[in-house]
Design brief:
single chain, mainly alpha, two-stranded antiparallel sheet, 2 strands, globular, transport, ATP synthesis, membrane, F0_ATP_A_sf, thylakoid
């Protein structure tokens, strides 16, 4: 009986290890030292960064005017939107966090839209395929971990070591739950963004393969809308977490 139970445990762990190796999509790997890097994520991420830098340079290439027009008008509108988002969620002392929240929103927004508008898959690689950066769990986890590091830094900078006293609020009985919450925040941020973008691209790909002409267009438009909403949700939650870590209980 003990031997059978032991063998069943080994088989269960072996199956679990096999599940951990399951991959979504085809990846283009680079070898960097002893590490295996998803090359397609770096390629598309730098493409998104290039797009953002180009738009920023085009919008501010001329001397800034008191009465904005053209590209300057668009840039100022985006900046005001991001500033209002940070001010609403963080409150006092929001200004230093506008660049961080703005970078998160713009990178995720352009990444999501690039997956819906740019036909990445027509660019052939030796193996694997290109896709939006946020279509890879590594990207969304990295963004979520940056958010976690940001709100820990914000809390420690304002309160010092007394920041950790929040784990005992409103009662020490909730200590394990409050600690667990800091692990669930990056998990929920990363999996929400990754799952929504992956599901949207899969639905559009399936519809295009079945009905390649008119039917996928409404789904693509809906995908653009949901992609923008996902970027807004991620940036809003990141700002809310930072504001929560800085507030006085």
């Amino acid at each position: 009986m003990h031997t059978a139970a032991y063998l069943s445990t080994i088989i269960a762990f072996r199956d679990l290890y096999g599940v951990s190796g399951v991959e979504v999509g085809q990846h283009f790997y680079w070898r960097v030292g002893g590490f295996q890097v998803h090359g397609q994520v770096l390629i598309t991420s730098w493409a998104v960064i290039t797009i953002l830098l180009s738009l920023a340079l085009l919008g501010t290439r001329r001397e800034l005017r008191t009465v904005p027009s053209g590209g300057q008008n668009v840039v100022e509108y985006v900046l005001e939107f991001l500033r209002d988002l940070a001010r609403t969620r963080i409150g006092g002392g929001y200004r230093p966090w506008v660049p961080f929240i703005g970078t998160l929103f713009l990178f995720i927004f352009v990444s999501n839209w690039s997956g819906a508008l740019i036909p990445w898959r027509i660019l052939e690689l030796p193996h694997g395929e290109l896709a939006a950066p946020t279509n890879d769990i590594n990207t969304t986890v990295a963004l979520a971990l940056l958010t976690s590091a940001a709100y820990f830094y914000a809390g420690l900078r304002k309160k010092g070591l007394s920041y950790f006293g929040r784990y005992m609020q409103p009662t020490p009985i909730l200590l394990p739950i409050n600690i667990l919450e800091d692990f669930t925040k990056p998990l929920s941020l990363s999996f929400r963004l990754f799952g929504n973008i992956l599901a949207d691209e899969l639905v559009v790909a399936v519809l295009i393969s079945l009905v390649p002409l008119v039917v996928p267009i409404p789904m693509m438009l809906l995908g653009l809308f949901t992609s923008a909403i996902q970027a807004l949700i991620f940036a809003t939650l990141a700002a809310a977490y930072i504001g929560e870590s800085m507030e006085d209980h």
